[in-house]
Specification:
The protein is mainly α. About 50% of the residues lie in helices and about 0% in strands.
Length: about 210
C-alpha cells in the first residue's frame, strides 16, 4: 500500500471512531451494497472501533484495505458476493511474494478472517460458497535462531561483576553484626570465579574433613 492509501485508511478509521453508534440492530438490518468497501466500513464501525485498541483497529483497517485493493485490481470491482477461497489464497501468496514476513502475512489473514466471519454471520447468503477465509492454513514460521552474547558482551559482563563490591567483602562470624563498611579481601575473587561458590556449606566443610560425626 502506498503512503497516500495508508493515510486515507487512517483518516477513514478516524471518521469511524468519531461517529456515535446508535440503533445498532436497525442499522445492521438495513440493505448494504454488495461491496467489500461498504461491508468493511460497517465491520470497522460496529465490531472493531471501540472494541479493539486504536493501534489494533488501525492495523485491521490497513490489512482489509490491502485485500480490497488487491481484489479490485484483479477483477475491476469489489463485489463481496463474488469472493471465493481461491481469492484469499491468491492474496496470501501475493503478500508472501511481496516480501512480507510469514508472521505479518498471518496477521493479515487473521484480520481478513475476522472480517469475513462477521460478514457471513450478518449475511449468511452473501458469500456464494460460505466464508472464503475459513480453513485456510497460516504460513509456517521459521525456526528461531539461537542468540548468545558476543565476546565483547561477555567481557563487559565480567568487568561489571568485578566492580561489584559485595563479591569481594569478607564473610563469616567475625564480621557479622559489625557496623560500618565490611573490609574487602586484598586478593578477593568474584563469586563467578570461585569453584565452590554454589556448593552448600556442608559439602565445603566435609571436603576439608571437618564434617559432622
Amino acid at each position: 500500500m502506498t503512503t497516500k492509501n495508508a493515510t486515507a485508511t487512517a483518516q477513514q478509521l478516524a471518521s469511524f471512531t468519531s461517529r456515535k453508534v446508535t440503533g445498532l440492530a436497525d442499522t445492521l438490518s438495513e440493505a448494504i451494497p454488495d461491496s467489500l468497501t461498504a461491508w468493511m466500513a460497517r465491520y470497522l464501525t460496529f465490531a472493531v472501533v471501540g472494541v479493539r485498541s486504536p493501534a489494533v483497529a488501525e492495523k485491521i483497517a490497513l490489512h482489509l484495505d490491502r485485500f480490497v485493493q488487491s481484489f479490485t485490481e484483479s477483477y475491476g470491482h469489489d463485489r463481496a458476493g463474488t469472493v471465493l477461497k481461491r481469492d484469499v489464497l491468491a492474496w496470501q501468496r501475493s503478500l508472501k511474494d511481496q516480501g512480507f514476513a510469514p508472521a505479518t502475512v498471518n496477521n493479515h489473514l487473521a484480520s481478513l478472517s475476522g472480517f469475513t466471519t462477521w460478514v457471513h454471520a450478518q449475511a449468511p447468503h452473501l458469500f456464494p460458497v460460505g466464508d472464503p477465509a475459513k480453513g485456510i492454513t497460516e504460513l509456517g514460521l521459521p525456526p528461531l535462531e539461537p542468540r548468545a552474547l558476543s565476546e565483547a558482551q561477555v567481557r563487559s559482563l565480567k568487568n561489571l561483576c568485578d566492580r561489584l563490591e559485595r563479591f569481594h567483602q569478607l564473610r563469616g562470624q567475625r564480621w557479622i553484626g559489625r557496623n560500618g563498611a565490611v573490609p574487602l579481601r586484598a586478593t578477593g575473587r568474584p563469586l563467578r570465579d570461585r569453584g565452590d561458590g554454589l556448593r552448600p556449606a556442608f559439602h565445603r566443610t566435609a571436603a576439608r574433613g571437618v564434617g559432622p560425626p
